[in-house]
Amino acid sequence: MKKELTIAEKLKKKYHRVEEVNNFKDMLYRSGKIFRSRTAFKLKDENGNIISITYEDFKNDVIYLGTNLIKHGFLNKRIAVIGKNSYKWCVSYMAAAIVGIVVPIDKELHSDDVINFMNVSQTVCILGDKKNLDVILDDISKVENPDTYFVSFEENFDTFLKSGKDLYISGFTDFDDITINPDELRILLFTSGTTGVAKGVCLSQRNICSNLLSTYGIVKVKRSDLFFSILPLHHTYECTLGFLLPIYSGASICHCEGLRYIAKNMQEFHPSVILCVPLLLENLHKNIVKNVNRGLPQKYQKENNENPFPYLPLFFKKIVRAKVKNTLGGRLRVFIVGAASANPNIISDFRDLKLNTLQGYGLTECSPLVARK
Q1: Inter-residue contact 339 to 237 (CB < 8 Å)
Q2: CA distance 237 to 234
Q3: DSSP of 117-179
């Protein structure tokens, strides 16, 4: 008699196939090999032109940065990263997590809180945006470790990276020899949770990798996808699902230049996946409904910001769908929403526009995704 499968086994048979990884170094080398010439990041150069960073470029930059971190004596030490979402932030996070323990810090915190987190975590090096580092340097007397090393993204990051490249090419390849215990502390975050008092959350790389593999098994991530990174990367939600998941999957990432540039950046980068919070979804919905009403013949317009789409004739619906999609960059296919519950009516309206919305629930302590629907 054939054994009947459990519900969990039946569900697992429907999952997308995943290739197991349990640490960031293996994931970095795997993606650098499999997706070598594919675009990992799209970013702007100093002239505002969009350029591509390949997976091989990203892997090498992490290796070079990590090599110089090792040379400075930071192997197995606490290394902090602070600043706005950027390619340099991602390189720094990955290198710090492989070389030592990465400590992502909220760039919006008061300098006293940042310094407190540095002291509590025993940070020996911090990489980040100049304006964030300058505020810390202004209060340097409060930093308990007088030898804390500062690497500014705008000032000495490129030189630091170049030195690491020279070291690696000349034969200092200790980075390649790093062995990571997937169950030891490698990510140290500080979150206020629901209490208002910041607490340290200790995560291993197996924690994060198991979370992104579970997500990949359920949510189809295409290699052609471009993730639009809006939410702060120091949050585990954005870092795991908006950075590490696409890197594992062979997709691409672009970074928003700021909340007021969302519409502009979407037109420039043409993303297909956006991670957001309900408020952002509500604002997008509000603007779309307002613009749709404004562009329709008067007899189809609705008052009080009511969505006119359900009442339109079929031929008008097709035109509206196309126009809305174009205003969102032309390729957008899915919103992934977290932090709070999304309005079901808004989700329904986006579904009518052929835009899917996935609702997630998670906790930083769970690396972070717990469930989605």
Answers
A1: yes
A2: 9
A3: HHHHHTEEEEEE-HHHHHHHHHTGGG-S-TT-EEEETTTTHHHHHHHHHHHHHTT--GGGG--
Which distant-in-sequence residues (6+ apart) come within 8 Å of 19 by Cβ? Answer: 30
Specify the DSSP class assigned to residue 3: P
pLDDT digits (tens, 9 = 90+) for 188-208: 999 876 566 788 999 999 999
| Cβ neighbours, 10 Å, residue 268 | 16
Among residues 244, 278, 237, the alpha carbon closest in space to that of 364 is found at 237
For the stretch 94-118, pLDDT in tens is 999 999 999 999 999 999 999 999 9
Question: At how many degrees (to 10) do helices 24-34 and 55-71 cross?
Answer: 140
Please, what are the domains in the chain? 23-180 (3.40.50.980), 265-372 (no CATH)
DSSP string, 286-353: HHHHHHHHHHS-GGG--STT---GGGS-HHHHHHHHHHHHHHTTS---EEEE-SSPPPHHHHHHHHHT
Report the C-alpha gap between 74 and 63 in whole angstroms: 14
Beta carbons within 8 Å of 299's beta carbon, 6+ residues apart: none
Half-sphere exposure of 213 (CA within 13 A, CB side): 16
Q: Find the angle CA(190)-CA(82)-CA(162) to the nearest 5 degrees.
A: 135
Contact (CB, 8 A) for 204 and 119 = no
Residue type, 76: N
